[in-house]
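Human: If only I could read backbone structure tokens as easily as an amino acid sequence. Take your time, and here it is.
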Amino acid sequence: MEATASAPPSPSARRLWPARPGEAVAFTLVALFLLAFLVVPVLTVVTVAFQDRASGSFTLAHFGDFLSNDLFRTSFLNSLYVSLMSVVVASLIALPLAYFTTRFEFRGAILVQTLGVLPLIMPPFAGAVAMGLLFSRTGTVNLLLGDWLDINIPFMEGLNGVIFVQSVHYFPFILLNLVASLKNIDRAMEESAQNLGSHGFRLFRRIVLPLAMPGYVAGASLVFIKVFDDLATPLLLNVREMLAPQAYLRITSVGLEDPIGYVISVVLILFSVLSLWVSSLALRGKDYATVQRGGGGLARRRMSRGQAVLAYAVIILILMLVLAPHFGLFLLSIATIWSFAPLPDGYTLAHYTRVFAESSQYITNTLIYAGLAGLIDVILGTTIAYLVLRTKLAGARWLDYLAMSALAVPGLVLGIGYLRTFFGVTLPGGTSLAAFWGIIVLALAVRRLPYALRACTAAMQQISASLEEAAENLGARRLSVVRRIVLPLMAGGLAAGFITSFATAAVELSATLMLVQSSNDAPLAYGLYVFMQSPAGRGAGAALGIVAVVIVGLSTLLSHLVAERGGGRKSA
């Protein structure tokens, strides 16, 4: 789940102490880590994009080549179109779920919102294969439509398929942010509008949605960024004329010296940053504040019998759509043969046997890599949060900004940057650093650091600085105060940060697809992608996908349980 900015800390939580030698060392180490594994690789990509290969001087010729090439112009327009349309379709899915469950007496509202988030725990490229079996021209839905109505709908044809899959997978970003915004609106605003004659869709369009716009824009910008940067889903759907697939194909086919791959990477970064900037610009200068958060005014509205039937029909239809990938993936994982038929011809557990017998290394590697990445993120997140909230170190705030900037760096770009930067760095024994499995861990850690950082920062903001001051007045050393007081009080936030980083790193593919040099070092997401490349391997790939869903699902559930247990233990 994507991280959101926390509320400004209270004065008592922001009490600062002069920096000490150990804190200066910690600042230096964190800064060096971010410079080495985030800033330098990204700057390397940018530098190569603007560098003449022969003379090494600055040039815009590579961008001219990019703009003059019909394939690349088409790929750019396709990526832009797919991203915008995915936002539109994802909004059409999320808006009814959010509105009905927060504004009406709706039985099962919590269940609906929970089921609506489930698509996030499945790798989108795994869902793409499952949705192909259900919605392609020879899939379950079109076979039934052909038999019943003699029609065939191109759900999964070309760019339509990418839009369909991405919308279903990423709409929970809009749903989560929109639900939170709707719950925070003062209901008295709606009551006043109703008393003045505003009802139904007009009330929603003129009052409710504008007040909830900050949450909607936050979710929509995340959907745009995720879709624009996604690599695996278009590749699995055999859609190559998009920017991320073109960058991957140029680097892997032409080589690391090909400047066009770097040019495309720069374009990907620019549009990620541009999306965040536009989303903030859209809300600038407007007031969305209400007198009180949630509550107030009228209670949740009752629906008439006809309205309730229609609302439940819409919700059930949407849930069937968004849960279809999970259903399809599970059926594929136990299917003997599934081709040109609404359902598999038979069922077997052989695919799971094959996965655990032949590919257990993928699962083991994932647990190791994601676990180490989560640990690194918690250590870095805690250190940055402490330096920002508890010291007067100059530049501490910039560490926070730098770490959060990883959100705007696509995994593909980071992977290309690592290859270019570290390929010539040789480890003892003659192995290139870019070929060492540890580089995958570092890439995952950098990619997921913003999630752990926000969790650690929120946890530290809830600890009153007076507790630490009292311990120091009683003679405790600063390091002992951190170890004996701060870290135990942050335990819930640390656990939530670790689990969030772990769960999202477990299904990361874009960066690892560039960095895996040996199948023995490959994580689960890479193995899943390889299996899904051929029809013969899709059964085993689906089984591996179900394993991934279980791992991420359990991690997400554990994160919620930890957050709930720690939620009531705020310090004074």
The longest helix spans residues 70-103. Confidence is low (pLDDT under 50) at residues 1-14, 567-572. DSSP finds 25 helices and no strands in the chain. The two ends are 28 Å apart (CA to CA).
